[in-house]
């Protein structure tokens, strides 16, 4: 080992990364491993939409960091590339009321935000459904972290409006995917009876990743994210959630600073 303390250190214009994005929390991998059965279940629910019909609704459950949002994002990307289906994902942590959810739907349908004041929910709702019918489009809505709508007592009203849209406006075709990470929340039981009567979703469960699955996934990310001469370490006691694990993998490799 050299006595020079700067030997082997990166200079200001060097980096260990080939692609830093693969370690970010919102990274969507090109190859989505170990979630084949879940993806097939979601595709089954949305298959009617490809034929121009109203899709089946779906309920996606599982602990945080198990690929639920990534699965829906991957599926939405495929649908946008291959079909005319309109897909909109709403982050319910940020949009925790029925009005704010439909504001995001308005933005997704019209490609601009609705007025910040002076427009009622009914008018907002009608403009969305009018456009869908006029363009003969099928809309699939993903309510990500739907548990936050329940915390604000907004879930039943939001889902009721979405699920009954075809009755309020003939020809409107809307499917709903709800995504929940709260293991203590029973989505169906917590809904009003008026919503329970029409919400019979396909249930898709995302279990925690096994140790070998985490090693496989992170190994692929490290290979894609770091240059070949950067030391990469994989730990067998990895967290079953990939959210912190990916960040730790990046941090360990940066700190090691080792070059082969």
Features:
single chain, 260 residues, alpha/beta, Helicase, Ruva Protein, domain 3, Rossmann fold, 2 domains, five-stranded parallel sheet, 5 strands, disordered C terminus
CATH superfamily membership of the largest domain, which one?
Answer: P-loop containing nucleotide triphosphate hydrolases
- The general outline is globular
- Count of structural domains: 2
Radius of gyration: 22 Å
How would you classify the helix and strand content by structural class? Answer: alpha/beta
Compressed to H and E, one letter per element, the order equals: HEHEHHEHHHEHHEHH
- CATH domain class name of the largest domain: Alpha Beta
Identify low-pLDDT runs: 250-260
The CATH topology of the largest domain turns out to be Rossmann fold
Mean of all residue-level pLDDT scores: 84
The biggest sheet, with number of strands, parallel, antiparallel or mixed sense and barrel status, is: 5 strands, parallel
Q: What do you see in this structure?
A:
The structure is a single chain. The chain has 260 residues and is of the alpha/beta class. Helices cover 44% and strands 11% of the residues. The chain has two domains: 1-33 and 209-260, Helicase, Ruva Protein, domain 3; 36-205, Rossmann fold (3-Layer(aba) Sandwich), CATH 3.40.50. The protein has helices at residues 36-50, 68-82, 98-110, 121-135, 147-151, 155-163, 165-168, 187-190, 193-196, 211-225, 242-256, and strands spanning 58-61, 86-91, 138-144, 173-180, 202-205. The longest helix has 15 residues, at 36-50. The chain is globular.
């Amino acid at each position: 080992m050299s006595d020079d303390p700067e030997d082997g250190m990166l200079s200001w214009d060097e980096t260990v990364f080939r692609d830093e994005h693969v370690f970010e929390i919102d990274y969507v991998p090109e190859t989505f491993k170990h979630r084949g059965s879940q993806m097939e279940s979601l595709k089954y629910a949305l298959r009617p939409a490809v034929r121009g019909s109203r899709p089946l609704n779906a309920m996606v459950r599982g602990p945080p960091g198990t690929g639920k949002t990534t699965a829906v994002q991957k599926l939405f990307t495929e649908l946008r590339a291959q079909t005319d289906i309109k897909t909109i994902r709403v982050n319910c942590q940020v949009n925790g009321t029925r009005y704010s959810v439909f504001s995001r739907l308005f933005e997704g349908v019209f490609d601009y935000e609705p007025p910040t004041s002076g427009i009622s929910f009914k008018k907002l709702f009608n403009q969305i459904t009018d456009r869908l019918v006029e363009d003969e489009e099928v809309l699939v809505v993903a309510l990500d972290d739907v548990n936050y709508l329940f915390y604000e007592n907004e879930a039943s009203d939001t889902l009721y409006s979405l699920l009954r849209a075809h009755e309020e406006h003939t020809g409107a075709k809307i499917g709903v995917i709800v995504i929940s990470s709260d293991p203590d929340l029973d989505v169906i039981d917590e809904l009003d009876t008026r919503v329970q009567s029409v919400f019979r979703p396909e249930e898709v469960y995302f279990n925690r990743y096994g140790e070998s699955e985490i090693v496989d996934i992170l190994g692929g990310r490290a290979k894609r994210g770091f240059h070949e001469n950067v030391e990469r370490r994989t730990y067998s006691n990895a967290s079953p959630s990939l959210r912190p694990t990916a960040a730790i993998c990046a941090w360990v490799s940066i700190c090691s600073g080792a070059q082969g």
